Amino acid sequence: MSHCAARPDQRLHLLSFPVDNSPYQTIAAGHAPRPEPLPQSVSQSCSIFVHGLQIAARIGVHDWEKLAPQPVKVDLEFGMASQLACHTDRLGDAVDYAAVVARLGELAVVRHYELVEAMGESMAMTLQKEFAIPWLVLRLAKLAPYPGAEVGIVVERGRRP
Q: What structural domains and CATH numbers belong to the chain?
């Protein structure tokens, strides 16, 4: 490690290391070099997931299911339309998964669904449209009908890259 005086009252620690089989590169300690964007020919893929989300839902065909909201579990994975947030670290460049979770909660109680198939399809279509999600896999499971078991559907929309 060497020292370089940036100002008389401050020392800057410098580190040298090999980068991509090139001569040594020197950077200030604590500051990593910015990653170079991958060439367009390199396939890139990132996804966001929310697993194990339990929410109350108005769902079911039996009279006892219509009396009160039933617990459902949602597992969701979706692609990002842009990877800009991976580089900017700004929420404004990302899909706000807190908003996605809130929307799932709203959709589960906005009306009564007889079938898990209908609720799952409604959730998938709404999320893709409202959040510009290119592809998603949504697992929706009812927890109440059979204690200790989950009964549900997997909805896949769009195509993974």
A: 1-35 (no CATH), 47-157 (3.30.1130.10)
